[in-house]
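Async update (no meeting this week)

Hi team, since we skipped the sync, here's where things stand on the single-chain job. The sequence we agreed to prioritize is pasted below, unchanged from the tracker. I ran it this morning and attached the output directly underneath so nobody has to dig for it. Comments welcome in thread, and please keep replies under the output.
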Amino acid sequence: MMMKKAMMAAVAVCALTAGTAMAQQAEGPWMVRVRAVNLDSANKDSTGLGLSINDKTIPELDVSYFFTPNFAAELVLTYPQKHDLRSNGAKIGSLKHLPPTLLAQYHFTGMGAFKPYVGAGINYTRFSNVNFNPAVEAALDPSIKKNSFGPAMQVGFDYMLDKNWSINFDVKKVYIKTDVSSAGKKVGSLKVDPWLVGVGVGYRF
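Output:
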């Protein structure tokens, strides 16, 4: 009798495990999100020139892969974004930056359609097309460091509309810094360190 009960319990556990695995498989391991993101720069300048870049709204494409229902990796992408470069509010040039970010995420489960998550990872930013006004160029011979690496943090949620489609709200803090030089000599740094607040839609498959 005990053997029979043990076998029945084992069958029940196997059935439950199989059902859970099928449910996870049905969700699909991939998720793609498209967001509109407001970039709000901290603009912390140590050069004494009052350097800053403008805030703007940018498009964002995010690709996630779920290793388990809880753990995922997300790659955040966009195209090079152009910003005005200002000194004490006056425009002195422009630049572009490309800031791909890779995040490891933990997704909370058991809340129905509401699926919050937190994430942490690393950002790489490439500055390009750096142009200064001719007067600034002649007086200071300025330049900036083209590459930046820094941490990134994230919190957000998906609200599932059905098995595939969702709406998303997401907040990231990304640490971006570049050294500023004049005639080849470093004079300080500009920390962009933006908050990125985004809303969008997602599709899981």
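Quick observations from my side:
Helices lie at 2-27, 134-140.
The domain at 31-204 is CATH 2.40.160.20 (Porin).
Reply here if anything looks off.
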